[in-house]
Amino acid sequence: MYIGLCCACGAVLGLITVYFWSLHIVLLAVYSAFLLSVVVFTVQEDFIININTRLIVSIITVTFFVLLHRPFEYVVVILSLTFIGSYMFMLGVDMIAHKGFYQALVIGLNMTDVCNPEPTLHKYKITKEILMMMISTLVIFIATFVLNLFLHKGKRYGLGIVANSNNTLEVKKKKEKKKDKK
Asked: CA end-to-end span of the chain, whole Å?
């Protein structure tokens, strides 16, 4: 039931973002900024910063990414996709290997210190395996960012829609290069 509900919500949101691709770019920036702020706060074992400060900094980070998405759409989209992809890849590896990398995400989003003023014991320790997963996430992020910058240089995202002379809209087709054979 839970998996079916998640798949249905993903399909509906996917169809919505196909038609409203500019909204999708904003949501992508929001998600990557929030994930970036969660990752930054979960690098330490002791979680010195409380949940209210984490939420405020997350909101500021999200606002910053959303404001940057319009003038720097190309870079924000590539940064967002590569960061989300590298983090989710290592999270998936941890779901198979069970080394505890996902515990940082679970504890970082835990709201019990807001509801319960008693200090809670965190069971998150940065082991050698978790440190290697963090470094691997960073390496994958940098490698895919550089690769995507190279592969998608000079391209924009979304459909190229142009108005015709008879007031209808048409999807602009890519120009094909003709090779002259001599």
From this structure: 63
